[in-house]
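Appendix B, record 7
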Amino acid sequence: MALLVLLSTVSWTVDKHLCMGKVVDVAFFANAKTCGMEVDSNSMDAEFEKSCCDEVSFTMQGQEDLKTSFFDLDLKQQVFLVGFTYYYINLFQDVDTVTTSFIGHPPPLLDKDYQVLFETFLI
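Structure tokens (predicted):
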């Protein structure tokens, strides 16, 4: 969905250089490279007015009416957006390990083995 929005809002320009009816170069967002056979406009004679090369350019205009402001949202939407953003940012932070108070205290010593004494075993 994001790719579709991006492609529909960006203006695209495709520039093609044709030499004798065949495509020599295609460029997006820039000028296409020429084949080097263009006629120089300063040394142009009357019989060589027509060049064998053509430049074809196609521009697709993107949409410009997708501007939405943060203040166009009502209060409930703003609160949700701020809360979601805060929660999402904190989701990727490290969680501190919980310290327990009994780490320094060893377990009690058992005088008797109660499982053997009462013959109760977990299977």
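Remarks on this record: The longest strand covers residues 12-19. Helices lie at 2-9, 75-91, 114-118.
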